[in-house]
Amino acid sequence: MTGQNPTADQIDTSKPHPARVYDWFLGGKDNYPVDEQLAEQLLAIEPRGKDIARVNRAFMHRATAWLAENGVRQFLDIGTGIPTEPNLHQIAQRSVPDARIVYADYDPIVLRHAEALLRSTPEGVTEYIQADVREPETILDRAKGVLDFSKPVALSLIALAHFLGDEEDPRGLVGRLMDALAPGSYLVLSHVTGDFDPVGAERAVALYRQGGVTLRLRSQAEVTSFFDAFELVDPGVVLAAEWHPEIGPDQRAAGDETIPVYAGVARKA
Predict the structure, then answer these.
(1) Which of 45, 175, 240, 262 has its CA 20 to 30 A from that of 226?
(2) d(Cα 75, Cα 227) in Å, to the nearest integer?
(3) First vs last Cα of the chain: how many Å apart?
(4) Are 53 and 42 in contact (CB under 8 A)?
């Protein structure tokens, strides 16, 4: 496992962290009062906050299952977040026991739980890297110890890009990561949008800003632009609940079709 064991002073509990807020929405216990406070404020704006997290995670499950069934044997998941079962490697290794997975995140609290991430099948491999998506070359260099970049890799960026401001060039970061991957690799990306409630979206952005966190919500066209250099898998960039709901089990509930998360999968030619 890459990285050092986190100490208490490495985990900043004075301000909310997106991974811990997400954990709270999913019903997890690895969060702090400051994260719960922000989550409850967000629920006052968007009462379906927990549904957003659930539908987003269900998309990850379906996309991973689809990729594994379509021959992908290697996965690079950046912005992993706090482990919630089933995790990406568990979904992939159900179909492909020898799948190789590298997780990457920069939050020390995720490192604390990395041992759970590393429970691979005997045939496969999982590894964890503590690194920031803003340093793609560092992630790629460390991932080479597990992944064979001469063969296809699925790059998974789930609910990550909306925490990158335009000034950080998120599309450029995605391009640098995908440039290192072999033809036949895939990009998997989900992204929260403000298309359906612009006023509420601006209030959410302001709440995150008060907590010292960037939140940049993007339109469907802006999210689609992340895939411009690649071949989109049908049905393209759509609301997360609409991406291959037939891949079971169907985890949608009434109203999920309007959950404001866009998602897509695309292949590098």
Answers:
(1) 45
(2) 18
(3) 32
(4) no
Query: Taking the mean position of all CA atoms in its chain, how far away is CA 96?
Result: 21
Between CA 35 and CA 190, with CA 205 as vertex, the angle to 5 degrees is 85
E strand spans, 94-137: 100-105, 125-130
Q: Are 264 and 227 in contact (CB under 8 A)?
A: yes
Integer angstrom CA distances of residue 62 from 29, 68, 100, 157: 25, 10, 18, 14
Name the token pair of 140: 């790629």
Q: pLDDT digits over 24-82, tens only?
A: 888 888 888 999 998 899 888 888 888 888 899 999 999 999 999 999 999 999 999 88
Asked if 20 and 35 count as a contact pair (C-beta separation under 8 A), the reply is: yes
Helix axes 33-45, 49-69, angle to 10 degrees: 100
Cα–Cα distance between 84 and 57 in angstroms, integer?
10
Strand partners for 190: 158, 263
Q: Among all chains, which residue has been given the structure tokens 């940049």? A: 216
3-state secondary structure of 82: coil
The pTM for the full model equals: 0.90
Task: Give the whole-angstrom CA distance, residue 237 versus residue 221.
Answer: 9
Question: The tokens 């909306």 sit on which residue?
Answer: 162
Contact (CB, 8 A) for 84 and 111: no
Closest CA to 139 of 96, 182, 222, 77: 77
